[in-house]
Amino acid sequence: MQILSKLNNRKVAIQGVTVLTPDGWLKDATVLIADRKFISIDQTISPDGFDLVNGQGLQMLPGIIDLHGDAFERMICPRPGVNFPLSIAIADNDRNLLASGITTFYCSITDSYEPGLRSRDSARTLIDFILGTGQQVLNCNHRIHIRHEEANITEHQELCDWMESGRVHILSINDHLPPPGNEKRLNRYLNSVKQRSSMSIEEIEILINQVREKRHQGAAQIEQLVDLAHTQKIPLASHDDDSLEKVLLSQKRQIAIAEFPATVDLAAKSREYGAAVLMGAPNLVRGGSHLGLMSVAEAVKNNVIDCLCSDYHYPSLFYAPFKLQELGLMSFEKAWSLVSSQPAAAVGISDQKGKIAPGLDADFLLISPEHHPISSITSVYVAGQEVARYQIK
């Protein structure tokens, strides 16, 4: 892979390419790009003053918008208790995003009561890097998705300050604290924390008990965060709604995105009140949910899905639309909207991203349709600049 330097205001013409436009495929087109945006998509135009790129035999797809991805955690902490410098980890993660065709990434940072990787300190450091010095080295367009744990009641004002200062672009309300008496969820949570920390099982159990004793103090904080999100026009997401009661609470909170609802009926209820249903692409690629909940295939068959995300595996998000077409569940054109235009609409940026159309940011992929999807990307462009190029064998 070759990472190329960013050049401002370059005028580019991609010629002879087959483009996936909002109206379908347009063959043998010329796509003009200037000032970081698409200027025109035309079959007859002959540009003057543009750098020419030969797109013969290639397809142009809108860049992928990933609303929920946390695989970067494994770049930071590849083994329990083993951490790497943040700048190295996130720069490496950036390359992995581009290799999977992701041009806009909502970095899903967990704001938890846990120490270490998912702590408030870690969240603060990540945000400071991504929105600060990281802007000089990261090619993918990074935004911040805070996954706030309901039971995390510390430093509440700091989170409010982040939201008020525009540092949070999605806020999701999470509750991974296992309830008393639910051994299945307790064991799953213990194993999960063990994988990302050096804590013993006994230490994790002590932490859980301490957090349970204080979690009731967070109820008012959550409602304040919900109100603040609406005031600041930050999209709100629910997480893992697995009962009608939770869906109705999400409706009351005017949730914009329902992440991973447990069943078809709950997903349908979420869509009824206006939420976009978001599911993980690994669910589709692996053949089902790793938690035994609703599958993406089932959601597609019942028309209760709006968007796909990488969740914990970036390559799955690029491969998923091809898989949906292969399974006969959806046309490729409609399937690609699950990773581009529909995520953009869900978070209110469809006037900027998600489609190849005049006036929108020139974020796109060039792929070779003659090759298997997993090795078909030839170039990735962000804001009209080629940021990654791959040799197709």
UniProtKB/TrEMBL annotation:
<dbReference type="InterPro" id="IPR012696">
    <property type="entry name" value="PhnM"/>
</dbReference>
<dbReference type="InterPro" id="IPR032466">
    <property type="entry name" value="Metal_Hydrolase"/>
</dbReference>
<dbReference type="GO" id="GO:0016787">
    <property type="term" value="F:hydrolase activity"/>
</dbReference>
<keyword id="KW-0378">Hydrolase</keyword>
<dbReference type="InterPro" id="IPR051781">
    <property type="entry name" value="Metallo-dep_Hydrolase"/>
</dbReference>
<dbReference type="Pfam" id="PF01979">
    <property type="entry name" value="Amidohydro_1"/>
</dbReference>
<protein>
    <submittedName>
        <fullName>Alpha-D-ribose 1-methylphosphonate 5-triphosphate diphosphatase</fullName>
        <ecNumber>3.6.1.63</ecNumber>
    </submittedName>
</protein>
<dbReference type="InterPro" id="IPR006680">
    <property type="entry name" value="Amidohydro-rel"/>
</dbReference>
<feature type="domain" description="Amidohydrolase-related">
    <location>
        <begin position="273"/>
        <end position="380"/>
    </location>
</feature>
<dbReference type="InterPro" id="IPR011059">
    <property type="entry name" value="Metal-dep_hydrolase_composite"/>
</dbReference>
